[in-house]
């Protein structure tokens, strides 16, 4: 049985058996709804949905919910049998606290009785997905932006950056902007998220954004109401290049990348910048890649960032699940070569062995 690879994001959990040049077989929302024990609607659930987010800004926060979600994925979704569990590889977000890594190992060996475990950082895995071991990943997901320079498979932690801006902030921004232009319509945030995924885009540059007068488009909401969407769709993309739009003092995404790399020893700058890898669902926004490259070309540094193209044999929308694909590539190496954690390792040393075995 192939190992299972799990990339548990703040919005989407990607899971499946390790088949490297394919999409994960399961891509499901991480958010769950809490049901009363007896399954009947409780007083609170009559008035509001009680949603639970097991993963917040990349890190597992609600362990009970995560256990239920993984149970569903592994036994119902992927067909593991109780008593005959297989091997599993998890993707770690940048700067995962040691305690979170240890608790995951504990959950896997003690509750799920897995036969082998491995975990590696998402940045390294996203590079593997495009056939690199050195480069810099810019992962714009739902709950965060992780910028991580990687040299020979090792994340340069001191130079890495976690920005707490992600798809969720862009959804909230769009909701706020659409609220201004459609004051009579009550918008549901999950509808706004879908609108964002359909319409959000990036202008060619900041001047084009300022001068833009674009035609309003109309969109019919599931309840039949019709809203108009104009420049707001560009405001969403612009916020990544001008975070002031979100009320933040941070630099734009390209400047953040260049600054992050500038703290690594200068002999590595060229290799890192010329192997910039964009990943995460938000980078699939229309026009994002072109705007990123355009701003990169204007950088004053001697070496400018240039983007790595995904290999042709990879699925077209690789950026949506690069970390998972890299995990599938790595799983084909670590498990057959016995580099993973076994139950015997776990019993002998305890959860802390994860820091020595998995990197
Ligand atoms: N075409 C699109 N335009 C803009 N945003 C998009 C598009 N497609 C997906 N997204 C956004 O991408 C985000 C999901 O990306 P991804 O799956 O990488 O996040 P995640 O792994 O769940 O979260 P994280 O890694 O931050 O914990 C969501 O916010 C989603 O709305
Ligand atoms: Mg992610």
TrEMBL record:
Keywords: Chromatin regulator, Cytoplasm, Developmental protein, Nucleus. It is found in: Cytoplasm; Nucleus. SMART domains: ACTIN. The keyword Transport does not apply. GO terms for biological process: anatomical structure morphogenesis; chromatin organization; embryo development ending in seed dormancy; floral organ abscission. Pfam families: Actin (PF00022). Gene3D superfamilies: 3.30.420.40, Actin, Chain A, domain 4. Its main location: cytoplasm. GO terms for cellular component: cytoplasm; nucleus. InterPro entries: Actin, ATPase_NBD. SUPFAM superfamilies: Actin-like ATPase domain. The keyword Nucleus applies. Essential protein required during embryogenesis and all plant development stages, probably through a chromatin-mediated regulation of gene expression. Belongs to the actin family. Plant ARP7 subfamily. This is Actin-related protein 7. It comes from Daucus carota subsp. sativus (Carrot).
């Amino acid at each position: 049985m192939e190992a299972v690879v799990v990339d548990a994001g703040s919005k989407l959990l990607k899971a499946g058996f390790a088949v490297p040049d394919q999409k994960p077989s399961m891509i499901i929302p991480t958010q769950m709804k809490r049901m009363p024990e007896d399954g009947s609607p409780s007083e609170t659930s009559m008035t509001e949905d009680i949603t639970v987010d097991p993963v917040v800004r990349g890190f597992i926060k609600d362990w009970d919910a995560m256990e239920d979600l993984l149970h569903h994925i592994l036994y119902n979704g992927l067909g593991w049998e109780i008593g005959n569990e297989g091997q599993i590889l998890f993707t770690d977000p940048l700067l995962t606290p040691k305690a979170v890594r240890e608790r995951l190992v504990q959950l896997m060996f003690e509750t799920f009785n897995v036969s082998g475990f491995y975990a590696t950082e998402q940045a390294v895995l996203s590079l593997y997905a495009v056939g690199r071991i050195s480069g810099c990943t810019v992962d714009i997901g739902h709950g965060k932006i992780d910028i991580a320079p990687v040299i020979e498979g090792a994340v340069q932690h001191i130079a890495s950056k976690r920005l707490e801006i992600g798809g969720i902030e862009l959804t909230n921004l769009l909701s706020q902007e659409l609220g201004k232009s459609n004051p009579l319509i009550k918008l549901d945030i999950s509808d706004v998220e879908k609108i964002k995924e359909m319409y959000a885009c990036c202008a060619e540059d900041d001047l084009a954004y300022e001068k833009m007068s674009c035609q309003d488009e109309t969109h019919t909401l599931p309840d039949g109401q019709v809203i108009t969407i104009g420049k707001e769709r560009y405001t969403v993309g612009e916020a990544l290049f001008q975070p002031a739009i979100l009320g933040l003092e941070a630099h734009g995404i390209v400047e953040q990348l260049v600054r992050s790399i500038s703290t690594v020893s200068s002999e590595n700058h060229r290799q890192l910048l010329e192997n910039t890898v964009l990943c995460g669902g938000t980078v699939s926004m229309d026009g994002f890649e072109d705007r990123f490259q355009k701003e990169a070309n204007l950088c004053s540094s001697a070496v400018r960032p240039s983007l790595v193209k995904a290999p042709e044999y990879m699925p077209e929308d690789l950026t949506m699940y690069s970390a998972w694909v890299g995990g599938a590539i790595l799983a084909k190496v670590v498990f057959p070569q016995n580099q993973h954690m076994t139950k015997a390792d776990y019993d002998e040393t305890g959860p802390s062995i994860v820091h020595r075995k998995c990197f």
